[in-house]
Amino acid sequence: DAGITQSPRYKITETGRQVTLMCHQTWSHSYMFWYRQDLGHGLRLIYYSAAADITDKGEVPDGYVVSRSKTENFPLTLESATRSQTSVYFCASRRGQGAMRNQPQHFGDGTRLSIL
Amino acid sequence: DQQVKQNSPSLSVQEGRISILNCDYTNSMFDYFLWYKKYPAEGPTFLISISSIKDKNEDGRFTVFLNKSAKHLSLHIVPSQPGDSAVYFCAARGFYGGSQGNLIFGKGTKLSVKP
C-alpha cells in the first residue's frame, strides 16, 4: 500500500527557474490538494482538484500552476521561482465524490523547497 | 483574519497525564472538524474528526469535544505518552463562497510529553 508519495523530498533551485513538484497517489481518490507550510501560517491551500482535468484555486495560488491529466498524479509547477516560495509543500488526497463528504485528507511526507 | 485559531503554540505535559489541545473558530458555517498530528519531516496524519451534529467523538485515548455555541473544540489525550509528542493541527470545513468544502487549518500546537 504505497499511499501518497511526493518527489523530490528536497530541492534547491535558483530564482527565476521553473521547478515541478510531483505527487502520486495509489488510492484512486477523487480529490487532490497542494498546501504550503510556513512558519507562523500553518497549512495554506494552493490549488486543488476534484477529478482529472478539474482544478481550482485555493487561498494562495499566485505563482503556481497545476494540472491533472490522470487521477493519480497532481504535479505542482512554479513557473518562475521566487524566494518567497521557499517552503515545505504537502500534497494530499481524499476520497468521496462530493465536496461535503466527511472524509479526511491524507497527506504525503512533503517536499522541502529552497529557492536561492 | 484567522478563521481557525490555535492560541497555544506549545504545551508540555507529564507522561500519563491528560493533554488538552484547544481550537477556536469564527465561522458558524463550519460543519466538520478534524485533528491532525505531525512529526518532523513527515506529513500530517489524520487523528480524529467530528461532525457539527455531534458534541463528542472518541477513539481510544483520543477524544474530541465540540462546543458550537462557543465555537470551540478541544482534543483530549488520556493518558499522554512520549510518542504523542508532535505538532497538532486543528482543521475545519465549511461550504461557503467558492470554498467547495475545503479545509482551513490552524497554525498548530506543539505538544511535548515528558517521561
List the helices and strands and how they pair.
The complex is a heterodimer of chains A (116) and B (115).
Chain A (H helix, E strand, L loop, with lengths): L3 E4 L2 E4 L5 E7 L5 E8 L3 E10 L2 E4 L6 E3 L9 E3 L8 E8 L11 E2 L3 E5 L1
Parallel strand pairs in A: 2-11
Antiparallel strand pairs in A: 1-3, 3-8, 4-5, 4-9, 5-6, 7-8, 9-10, 9-11
Chain B lengths: L3 E2 L4 E5 L4 E7 L4 E9 L6 E7 L4 E4 L2 E6 L4 E6 L8 E9 L8 E3 L3 E6 L1
Parallel strand pairs in B: 2-11
Antiparallel strand pairs in B: 1-3, 3-8, 4-5, 4-9, 6-7, 7-8, 9-10, 9-11
Overview of the molecule:
The complex is a heterodimer of chains A (116) and B (115). With 116 residues, chain A is an all-beta fold. Chain A has strands at 4-7, 10-13, 19-25, 31-38, 42-51, 54-57, 64-66, 76-78, 87-94, 106-107, 111-115. In chain A, the strands form 2 sheets. In chain A, strands 2, 4, 5, 6, 9, 10 and 11 form a 7-stranded mixed sheet that branches. Chain A starts with a strand and ends with a strand. Chain B is mainly beta and 115 residues long. Chain B contains no helices and 11 strands. In chain B, strands 2, 4, 5, 9, 10 and 11 form a 6-stranded mixed sheet that branches. Chain B has a 5-stranded antiparallel sheet with strand order 1-3-8-7-6, with no helix packed on it. Chain B starts with a strand and ends with a strand. The chains are: A mainly beta (116), B mainly beta (115). The A-B interface holds A 4, 33, 35, 40-45, 48, 50, 56, 58, 90, 92, 98-100, 102, 104-110 and B 31-32, 34, 36, 41-46, 49, 51, 89, 91, 93, 95, 98, 100-103, 105-108.
